[in-house]
């Protein structure tokens, strides 16, 4: 198979259910790190990427909450 420069790779959008509003959502990454810091003269940047829903920015569930039953 030859490479065609017109072919564009696009990442697959991951989906789930928002744990807050219980609706289907796309998963996005947000940075919850503390950002820029300095410790004894050494500068750095803390980055913590968390997967959350695109609607409420809350954790995402793998399964539809309406279909799960409590045991």
Structure description:
This protein is an all-beta fold and 71 residues long. It has a domain at 15-61. It has strands at 15-18, 24-31, 35-39, 42-46, 49-53, 60-61. The protein has a four-stranded antiparallel sheet with strand order 5-2-1-6, with no helix packed on it. A two-stranded antiparallel ribbon has the order 3-4.
What's the main sheet like? 4 strands, antiparallel
Structural class: mainly beta
Mean pLDDT: 86
Helix content percent band: under 10%
How far apart are the first and last residues' alpha carbons, in Å? 51 Å
Q: Compute the number of helices.
A: 0
Question: Approximately what portion of the residues adopt beta-strand conformation?
Answer: 35-45%
Summarize the structure.
This protein is an all-beta fold.
Produce the secondary structure layout.
Blueprint: E1 15-18, E2 24-31, E3 35-39, E4 42-46, E5 49-53, E6 60-61
Task: List descriptors.
four-stranded antiparallel sheet, mainly beta, flat, 71 residues
């Amino acid at each position: 198979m030859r490479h065609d420069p017109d072919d564009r790779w696009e990442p697959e959008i991951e989906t789930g259910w928002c744990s807050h509003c219980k609706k289907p959502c796309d998963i996005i990454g947000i940075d919850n790190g503390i950002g820029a810091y300095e410790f004894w003269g050494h500068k750095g940047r803390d980055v913590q990427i968390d997967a959350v829903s695109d609607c409420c920015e809350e954790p995402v569930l793998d399964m539809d909450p309406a279909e799960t039953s409590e045991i």
